[in-house]
């Protein structure tokens, strides 16, 4: 079991290192951030001064090694524009994104999983077709388009919900629903497929022959055995909620790390962009690591095969 965990953790560390390296190289080779911050009319001596001040005059390999050393000590550098520690800037915005992401995930799980189970139990019926139609619609509808539609309907037409900002539960309604739509549709589809496969297994007929009630067969026999594919989708979507929040936070002016990333990219604030890329990548990688560990707990055969 210990070896299983160590292998997964090692893969996680290597993945994060590759993401950090790729982001560092791309950002450093895509243009001069000093010129972007000071403007094209800045004097050459001013550009050279700030390049030396921020260490951008050093060779790329030296900048990279310095950044790796900083990260190893828990530092992500200083913002080129705000002159503040990147970790402090991210810490200010992260709670808003966590609030939005967890609320959206709860909505998606509460709607998507039961909907998929109901669709599987009513296979081929009107309810099954209706649920799957809605699920495909939610899965395919772009977040930015749905967000704009909700603003037009509930903010501009009905005037019952605020269109942007934060502070009350009303501000959270539209962004969380918009972010949850894709995940709910995905969960409904995969839950239905997994449940249909399990419902045909011999042990389900054996449970019915032993006199187990319908609800007991579904809750204690079918659903636990269908959990692994569902856990996979939950893990993938949980990681993608942070990345998906970039669009949603921009549409609804939600003050989270997604909106911060858009602003930092437009301002060429390298340190902030690198820190945010690492946070987003770490969220997705840790979600996948959690899924792998849950695999080992749900099915010991997977754990043994991995070791």
TrEMBL record:
InterPro entries reported for this sequence: BPD_transp_1_N, MetI-like, MetI-like_sf
Family matches, as Gene3D superfamilies: MetI-like (1.10.3720.10)
Pfam families cross-referenced by the UniProt entry: BPD_transp_1 (PF00528), BPD_transp_1_N (PF19300)
Phosphoprotein in keyword set: no
Primary localisation category: membrane
Localization: Cell membrane
Protein known as: ABC transporter permease
Native species: Paracoccus albicereus
Taxonomic lineage from the root: Bacteria, Pseudomonadati, Pseudomonadota, Alphaproteobacteria, Rhodobacterales
């Amino acid at each position: 079991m210990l070896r299983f965990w160590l292998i997964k953790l090692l893969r996680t560390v290597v993945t994060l290192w590759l993401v950090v390296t790729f982001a560092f190289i791309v950002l450093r080779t895509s243009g001069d951030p000093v010129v972007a911050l000071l403007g094209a009319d800045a004097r050459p001596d001013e550009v050279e001064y700030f390049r030396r001040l921020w260490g951008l005059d050093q060779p790329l390999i030296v900048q990279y090694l310095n950044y790796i050393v900083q990260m190893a000590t828990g530092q992500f550098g200083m913002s080129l524009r705000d002159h503040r520690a990147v970790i402090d800037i991210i810490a200010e915005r992260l709670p808003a994104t966590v609030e939005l992401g967890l609320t959206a995930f709860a909505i998606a799980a509460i709607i998507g999983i039961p909907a998929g189970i109901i669709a599987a139990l009513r296979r081929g019926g009107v309810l099954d077709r209706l649920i799957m139609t809605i699920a495909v619609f939610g899965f395919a509808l772009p977040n930015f388009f749905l967000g704009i539609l909700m603003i037009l309907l509930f903010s501009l037409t009905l005037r019952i919900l605020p269109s942007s900002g934060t502070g009350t539960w009303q501000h959270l309604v539209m962004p969380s629903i918009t972010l949850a739509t894709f995940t709910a549709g995905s969960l409904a589809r995969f839950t239905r497929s997994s449940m249909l496969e399990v419902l045909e297994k011999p042990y389900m007929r054996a449970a019915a022959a032993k006199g187990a009630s319908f609800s007991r067969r579904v809750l204690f026999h079918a659903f636990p055995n269908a959990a692994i594919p569902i856990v996979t989708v939950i893990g993938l979507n949980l990681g993608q909620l942070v990345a998906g929040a970039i669009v949603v936070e921009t549409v609804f002016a939600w003050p989270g790390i997604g909106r911060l990333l858009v602003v930092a990219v437009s301002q060429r604030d390298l340190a902030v962009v690198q820190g945010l890329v690492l946070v987003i990548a770490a969220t997705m990688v840790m979600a996948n690591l959690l899924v792998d560990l849950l695999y080992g707990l749900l099915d010991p055969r997977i754990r043994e095969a991995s070791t």
